[in-house]
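Before a colleague's protein record goes any further, I have to sign it off. I want your independent view on whether this chain really folds as the tokens say. The record follows directly below this note.
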Amino acid sequence: MNENRQITLDDIAHHVGVSRTTVSRVLTGQAARYRISSQTSENVSQAALELGYMPDQLARALRTRRTNTIGLIIPDISNPFFSTVARNIEIQARKIGTSIILSDSQEDTQLEIESTRLLQSRKVDGLIICPVGEEFEHLLNLKNSGLPLVIIDRYFPQLDCAYVVSDNYRGALEALSYFFEMNHKSVAFIQGRSNTSVNDDRVRGYRDAHAKYNLPVDESLIVGDSFGKRNGYIGAKILLTKNPRPTAIFAASNLISLGAMSAIQEEGLKIPDDISIISFDDQPYSEYLATPMTTVSQQTSEAGEIAFRLLQAQIKQEGKHSTEGIVLPTELIFRKSVKKLD
């Protein structure tokens, strides 16, 4: 056989001794539907591998009007939360032979808009977006275009489309309640990107916990403007110069808490002897820190899987948009970073 010639379904059919239709059904995952025996399926798959068969994706896309690719836009691939989400979406996609085109918007709305346009031009079957969270008109345009769309982590109440988020309000409320039950009266909050749903819900939980325990909110103890490590470092530096110093810090993200811990160490302070801390979002390293970190754990892996399933349901329904919103519960993981005060 000419090594430069592209292997066809007919070549595989001739090699195995079955019909071209049988080969096609096996290689498109329809063997069970047409009751093709497991032995035949195995023979066809093995022959395709040995002969070096490569499916013509362009021809398939023209025939099915699908590319078997989806777009995924996240705001920061360096953040373990988003990389975990992306990994679990990719795992689910691989199971059904779907490819992922990943774009990092770098917490920039304009880059997010450009990414949506690029992915549309690539004719993806649908989009999963972890939005920057400040603007949504471009997402509304996507929805109105009929392209299957699912939002994850940060959402817009005004945007009537499927989304998967954590119960950010409840997570923050429980974290602050724990601080207060441990007799902390002065708890600072290093927040993330303001005017995003995820941050606003956490701020609301922080404020409502104060009200629940009849404690006033000291506005000077709410600092920060992004979910990054640098913000945590700068925020903690500001808070640690206050007199009196807050006895505890609530960090709105895992990266914020890392930055805050760096500043605390530089100031010669120890956790929890000198200052207590809780981080929103649990990470594998959280329990292995010098002082294991008390965290608000999110169902990160589940969020990615659920978002993918919601998108696939829309794709199968020919773009009929779902407006289902799923809010996943959080859990406060108790470790050793919070000290009980007298």
